[in-house]
Specification:
DSBA-like_thioredoxin_dom (chains A, B), 2-hydroxychromene-2-carboxylate isomerase (chains A, B), globular, alpha+beta, HCCAis_GSTk (chains A, B), homodimer, 199 residues, 4-stranded mixed sheet, Glutaredoxin, isomerase activity (chains A, B)
C-alpha cells in the first residue's frame, strides 16, 4: 500500500487545515499516512530565526491569517482568530503525540490539540489542557504525560526532528514520499497523488 | 466587467507559471487583467534581505526549484534549469513593460521575457536581449528602450512599487482585487474566482 509521511508542528497555523483534511483524502486514495510530529524551532534557529517568520515579517503574518481564514471557509473548517498566542509552544504536545504513536492514537490526539488551539483558543502548552484532551480520548492522562516525558520518548522526537532536517524540511506542514518533498497545506493533494503513482 | 491586478517581478521564479497561465484563465472567467510589473528589491530590503530568500535559505531554494519543475510539468510549460543566474536583475525589463502599457503590449513582452529567462537561459538585463525581444514583437527597439529610461516612465514604475507596498504585497506573483490580496501562483484560480464573485 502506498504511504506518505506527514510532518507537522503543533505551533504551525497552516498545519491546522492539513491535520483536519489529510485522513479522508488519503483513505479515499488508498494511501497510508505516517503522522510525524516534529519541532520547527531547531530548523528555524538554523535559518537565524528566533521567532515565527509570520511574526518577523508582519506583512507575511497579516497575509497568512487572512489566507487561513479563506482556506478554512472554503473547507468548512471552524476557525477562531486570533489564537490565544502565536506561535504557541508545541513541545509537550509533540512529545505526547510521539508517545501515542504505537497505540495508533496520534491522529485523534493531534486533531484535538489543533481544535483546542485554533477553534477553542486554549493554551496548548498547559498540562491541564493536554490532560483534558487525553481524558477526552478515554486515556489515563497522568500515565501518558509521564511516558511523554521519559528520556526515551524525548530521544524519539529529537531523532524525528533530525530526520526532518535530513529530508531538507524547512517548514510545516510538509509531506514526503521517499525523498520527494512537498511543502504546505496546498500541496497535500499533489503529495497524495505522488504517493499513489510512484510511492 | 470584473478585474484583477496582477503583480509580478521579472526576477521571480514563481511569476513564470503565473505569467503563462493568467490570460486564458481570466478570459474564460470574463475577468480583465491589469498587468502590474513592480520591483521586489525595495520590499525585500524592508525585510532586511539583500538577496532572494531562495538564496538566503538554501533549503527553501532547493525546494522551490523542484516545486517549479513539478508545476511546469503539470501545466505543460517548458522549463530549463538552472537559469543563467538567479535572481536576474529585472529593472530594465520592468521599465519596458511599464512603458508598453498604454500600447497594450505589456502581456506579450512579459511572456517573451519570462520565456527568455526560464526557457532560453538568456540574460534578461542585457540591452541586446531586450532589444531582440522587442523586435520580435515588431517594435522599434531603440525607441522603446529610450522611452523606458525617461524620468516619467521611471517615476511610473516607482509609483507602482509604492502602491504594491501600500497593498501590503511582500512577494511575487501577487493578485489583488480591491484590497483583497492573494499571494503565489497557486492562488491564481482563487483570485480570479474572487474577482468574479466580489470584484
Amino acid at each position: 500500500m502506498p504511504s506518505i509521511d506527514f510532518w507537522y508542528e503543533f505551533a504551525s497555523s497552516y498545519s491546522y487545515p492539513a491535520v483536519m483534511r489529510i485522513a479522508p483524502l488519503a483513505e479515499d486514495a488508498g494511501v497510508t499516512v505516517n503522522w510525524r510530529p516534529f519541532l520547527l524551532g531547531p530548523i528555524f534557529a538554523n535559518h537565524g530565526w528566533a521567532d515565527s517568520p509570520f511574526n518577523l515579517y508582519p506583512s507575511k503574518g497579516r497575509y497568512m491569517w487572512r489566507d487561513l481564514e479563506r482556506i478554512c471557509e472554503k473547507e468548512g473548517l471552524p476557525l477562531s482568530l486570533p489564537p490565544v498566542s502565536f506561535p504557541q509552544n508545541g513541545l509537550k504536545a509533540a512529545r505526547i503525540a510521539r508517545a501515542l504513536r504505537d497505540d495508533g492514537l496520534t491522529p485523534d490526539f493531534t486533531r484535538a490539540v489543533f481544535k483546542a488551539n485554533f477553534v477553542e483558543k486554549k493554551c496548548i502548552s498547559l498540562d491541564n489542557v493536554l490532560a483534558e484532551i487525553l481524558q477526552g480520548l478515554g486515556l489515563d492522562a497522568e500515565a501518558v504525560l509521564a511516558k511523554a516525558e521519559t528520556d526515551l520518548n524525548k530521544a524519539h522526537l529529537r531523532a524525528d526532528t533530525d530526520e526532518a532536517m535530513r529530508l531538507d524540511i524547512f517548514g510545516a506542514p510538509s509531506f514526503t514520499v521517499g525523498d520527494e518533498l512537498f511543502w504546505g497545506n496546498d500541496r497535500l493533494e499533489d503529495a497524495i497523488e505522488w504517493a499513489v503513482k510512484r510511492g
